[in-house]
Design goal:
With 313 residues, the protein is α/β, with parallel strands linked by helices. Helix content is 32%, strand content 19%. The protein has 10 helices and 16 strands. It is globular and about 55 Å long. The structure holds ligand RRO. The site of ligand RRO has 16 residues, from loops.
Length: 313
């Protein structure tokens, strides 16, 4: 199966991307993964100024996933452009810069700074961080604000512009429609679900901010349902995210209608798992006689076949 696709002028050699915030700036574990073999590296969210993030504890494991409240810790756009981006180019990665901000002007500033540099293949705009007071979810749960940010940034770049949506809304399709109407090339679905966990002996929350972003295998069915909803709402490409632990999970997102898939929490277990999923995806393509990935995307068969369902097919 040919895994290559071009979306809004950006060529992705394969559909497996790293999810923002789970792979640093793509340079932290060269001994485990050759980033040129990934579809793209999506960077940790970059803001105008460096940010130390939230106080610890900022990460906790749960029965079937992970809670985080990193609070947008990042090096800021200047250090990113001076130090991280050149190294990513050197490593021959396809680079999608994830941008976070607390105002339309700040999103615009960071994007404009990136536009001055070679080596950025596209942008993912984070309007969905659950862990910071300004920006993040205050934009992401306001459909008008998401549309306004999309319109402003669309006017500033011809590169791939993907808006990363939160699942913590009643109707994610409305948000995707607002992005599409204002010229977004794609929507990334989904950021983390708001979650919480605690220790009963101490009666203390597991993370300092009490609630955080919940990710990992437990959210896969919920994320697939959100992608399915968005697929029905818009025609632009979808980048599926949420609980992908294996090639089979990634295939599920493609079949439901995502063109690209991001792997996040699984990288904490095996930073190289994105690359190893590719062989299994190709084998699946061969087994099903699928020559092009485009023939797989959105190929969900919703006809009722009770005998196959019973047999686990
Ligand atoms: O840094 C974070 O706490 C964070 C971000 Br920006 C995000 O978009 N999603 C998330 O789960 N955590």
């Amino acid at each position: 199966m040919n895994l290559q696709q071009t979306i809004a002028g950006t060529t992705f050699e394969n559909p497996i991307l790293t999810a923002s915030g789970t792979f640093g700036y793509g340079l932290e574990c060269p001994e485990f993964v050759d980033v040129s073999r990934l579809g793209a590296v999506v960077t940790k969210s970059i803001s105008r100024k460096p940010r130390p993030g939230n106080p610890p504890q900022r990460i906790a494991e749960t029965t079937a996933g992970m809670l985080n409240s990193i609070g947008l810790a990042n090096v800021g756009v200047d250090v990113f452009l001076d130090e991280k981006l050149p190294a990513l180019r050197e490593a021959k990665a396809t680079v999608i810069v994830n941008i976070a901000a607390s105002s339309v002007e700040e999103y615009a500033y960071v994007l404009e700074r990136c536009e001055e540099h070679d080596g950025v293949d596209g942008y993912e705009i984070n309007v969905s961080c659950p862990n910071v007071k300004d920006g993040g979810l205050s934009f992401g749960t306001n459909c008008h604000a998401v549309g306004e940010i999309t319109r402003d940034l669309r006017g500033r770049t011809k590169k791939l512009l993907a808006m990363k949506l939160t699942p913590n809304v009643t109707s994610i399709g409305d948000f995707a429609r607002a992005c599409e109407a204002e010229g977004a090339d794609a929507v990334s679905c989904v950021n983390t679900f708001v979650g919480m966990d605690l220790f009963v002996e101490s009666r203390r929350p597991k993370i300092a901010t009490i609630t955080g972003g919940y990710s990992g295998p437990a959210i896969l069915p919920m994320a697939l349902a959100k992608v399915h909803e968005v697929r029905k709402a818009v025609d632009i490409p979808i980048i599926g995210i949420g609980g992908v632990m294996s090639a089979v999970d990634a295939l599920k997102f493609l079949i439901v209608g995502a063109s690209l898939v991001q792997v996040g929490t699984a990288l904490f277990v095996d930073p190289g798992c994105g690359v190893t999923m590719l062989d299994e995806m190709r084998t699946y393509g061969e087994r099903h006689g699928i020559a092009e990935i485009s023939d797989l995307i959105g190929s969900l068969d919703t006809s009722l076949q009770p005998s196959l369902v019973a047999a686990g097919w």
